[in-house]
Amino acid sequence: MQLDFHQVDVFADRPFGGNPTIVYRLDRWLPDELLQRIAAEHNLSQTAFVVREGAVWRIRGFTPVVELPVCGHATLAAAHVLQLIYAEAADTLDFISRAGPLSVRRDSGRLWLDLPAQYPDEEGVSIDVQRALGVDIVDVLGANELFVVLESEQAVRACRPDQAALAEMMWAGVVITARGERHDFVSRFFAPRLGVPEDAATGTTHCSLVPYWARRLGKSSLSAYQCSPRGGQLACRLAGERVHIGGQLTLMASGRLLAGLNADTAAPGLAVVGGGQRP
Questions:
Q1: DSSP strand E in the chain: where?
Q2: Are residues 101 and 20 both part of a single domain?
Q3: Among 5, 118, 182, 249, which residue is least crowded by beta carbons within 10 Å?
Q4: Range of the domain at 69
Q5: Is residue 79 part of a domain?
């Protein structure tokens, strides 16, 4: 069995930025254990697999250790690959994730992902969170992830969290954010429980970041920067109960995965050739 894959840098207008993501277009689904092992082999924050189902694409995204119900940047990467490599001509592509339907639209040089808005609730500052992050905290809220507001962009950039302490928390991930110096807001995202110590540029965290900062800043269109070491530029819009997250993408590499055993088994024998990023 041989499977082609493609690596895309998401939320990046040039190579070596944004979030590197692997995409596989499959003719049929492989065993779950094999999908997880392929994702672990690539060792990126997300490896996406898509299979056509009628007029839509079913998408599944895996970290090196777990499958996620939805992943924003991986869905954008999948749309980019389908349009660029596999000649899907439609400006809008529809996907079905474990969390429900998603759509990606190409407009003005960006791909835009449509997601439901999530308004974070007040949680209150705790000593455990402060110790785990090692920085002064302005506010703590809860959404799908723990949502921590810091005093400045410099504080966000300087944060060096205790990854072991974060992994022990009940939250799958922790997003830290502050008002930006050259952008409306900045953020970083840590998810050691999911096998991702720090994500480079995250789509789904902006489901809560955008409503929060839209309300704070009194505007519905915002520029965002995820100030991880790789960095990621995001354009954001709040449209009622929906969040539109836009970005540019760069195709970085294509390669082929070679498996020594039949695809119907999840036994050892995998090797990656070309395009994969090693730890």
A1: 2-10, 19-26, 47-53, 56-62, 67-68, 92-97, 100-107, 110-116, 121-122, 139-142, 146-149, 174-179, 185-191, 196-199, 221-226, 232-239, 242-247, 249-259, 270-273
A2: yes
A3: 182
A4: 2-105+248-273
A5: yes
pLDDT at 169 over 60: yes
Which structure tokens are listed for 265? 């088994």
Q: pLDDT at position 39, please?
A: 96
179/268 same-domain check: no
Q: How far separated are the first and last CA of the chain, in Å rounded?
A: 25
- Pair (96, 140) in one structural domain: no
CA angle 132, 222, 241 (to 5 degrees): 85
Predicted local confidence at residue 262, as pLDDT: 55
pTM, two decimals, is 0.89
Residue 115 is assigned to a structural domain of this protein: no
Q: Report CA 215 to chain centroid distance, whole Å.
A: 24
Does the structure show a pLDDT above 50 at 279?
no
Q: Is residue 96 included in any domain, yes or no? A: yes
Which residues have C-beta within 8 Å of that of residue 170, sequence separation ≥ 6?
Answer: none
pLDDT tens profile 120-164: 888 776 778 889 999 999 999 987 789 999 999 999 999 999 999
Query: Is the separation of the CB atoms in 269 and 136 below 8 Å?
Result: no
Average pLDDT, the chain: 90
DSSP string, 155-182: HHHH----HHHHHTSSSS-EEEEEE-SS
d(CA 13, CA 233): 8
Indicate whether 263 pLDDT > 90.
no
